[in-house]
Amino acid sequence: MPVARRVLPRLGPVLAVLALMVCAMFASVPAHAAGVGLDSVAEALKKSPVYVDPRARDQVSEADAEDLAKKIEDAGKPVFVAVLPEAAEFPPRTLMRDLRTQVGITGVYAVHLGDGFNANADSSVMSRNAVGNLTGAVRRSHSGDTEGLLTAFVDQATEQARGKAPAAWSGSEGDEGGGGAAVLFTVGAVAAAGAGGYTLYRRSKKKRERAELDALRVVVDEDITAFGEELDRLDFHPSEPGADDAMRQDYTHALDTYDKAKELMAVAAKPQDVQPVTAALEEGRFALAGLTARRAGIPVPERRAPCFFDPRHGPSAIDAMWAPPGGAARSVPACEADADFLAAGHEPMVRQVRTAYGSQPYWNAGPAYAPWAGGYFGGTGSMLGGLLVGTMLGSVLSTPSAFAGAAPVDSAPGGGEFTGADFNPGDFGGGFEGSGFEGGGDFGDGDW
């Protein structure tokens, strides 16, 4: 007799309904769930570690797929495997990046596409060298044997990967040995989650915001210090010969915004509080530019956005053409020095910030930098979002929730954690050449 039928007569009507809902919720999810398109692949991998497209079942049987999924689940490691046909909906050049983005979970990703194979991983889970060496080894030792190749890869990857399996996988395998106690325990767990889930969420959110603010504080303090040094170098005295009311007004306004930025940063309690700080610095630098022009006897510059490459450079002077690696060219506001660098074919002086993956341009440092950038470039972020189309930060700055908080930028997420699209692009490069994916260890930014 099925477990649920033995237990339900002993439960009240409410518990009976809850038990049926829980049993349905935790029903086994086949590793080869049918679906077309990358969305279907990603949704399946959120529930089970292995996905085999219906059109690729001749390469991996249902039984082999189930065995492979069980092997990964038993190991408890965040290893994802997809077996896909060569099809228009799986563009090989960006497949690894797109799959990681849509699944959104830190881990090791292995894809068999047509007759090619490639694997990438978040560096916090497995090093680039480890992934590249393992990928090359299984290719050479199991050429033409898809099932053998995937099994060999999984055997090694589950031993080397750091972190734990996603919590969503825990319901992928049913356990009939627990009887009524298992059903009652699950119902109790659901009730407990309802009572304490919000508390845990709030606690996690506060911890995340503290980590974000600590990382942002380093960057903002550098900005404030740089502005203070500019004020010192200016060496302006309100009573100096030639000083007029307009100069004194600019100077006073610059000093006021400097003090305001320090005061606002001192009381900042969450990442969003950084936005008015950088807005004050942007206003102060424009006042400083006006004072400099007046002292030199030249026209006061028009109010323009800060230099796109580093707001510490002050207001931009012209619009220059620039393209991010692998992206389309677009016009961006630039200071004279950076515009000259671009015109000469050199890289501009880009603002680098510290991240868990090393020093990165601020637009590759993750959505937690949205409040910092939004203060400089207009608050809503719509302007910067347009400038940064195709970059990590640009994807979130154009949305209303751009400043609602994001993952910490100073600590690498552990394996199995949900990070959405916030991951290091360098970990998921590599493309498709000839008859298969090339270079499991080739993690350049050429695809971005």
What does the model show?
The protein is 46% helix and 10% strand. By secondary structure, the chain is an alpha/beta fold. β9 (432-433) and β10 form a beta hairpin.
The N- to C-terminal Cα distance equals 56 Å
Low-pLDDT stretches are 1-11, 13-35, 172-193, 403-411, 432-448
Total number of helical segments? 14
Q: What's the overall geometry?
A: elongated
Rg, Cα atoms, Å: 27 Å
Q: Please identify the structural class as seen in this structure.
A: alpha/beta
What is the mean predicted local confidence, pLDDT?
Answer: 77
Q: What order do the strands of the largest sheet run in, or round the barrel if closed?
A: 1-2-3-4
Annotation, overall tally of beta strands: 10
Percent in strands: 5-15%
Structure, briefly:
With about 450 residues, the chain is of the alpha/beta class.
Structural descriptors:
elongated; disordered C terminus; 10 strands; two-stranded antiparallel sheet; disordered N terminus; single chain; 4-stranded mixed sheet; 448 residues; alpha/beta
How would the blueprint of this fold be written?
Blueprint: H1 3-7, H2 13-25, H3 38-47, E1 50-52, H4 62-75, E2 79-84, H5 95-103, E3 108-113, E4 116-121, H6 128-141, H7 146-160, H8 179-234, H9 245-266, H10 275-296, E5 318-322, E6 330-334, H11 336-343, E7 352-355, E8 358-361, H12 370-376, H13 382-387, H14 394-397, E9 432-433, E10 436-437
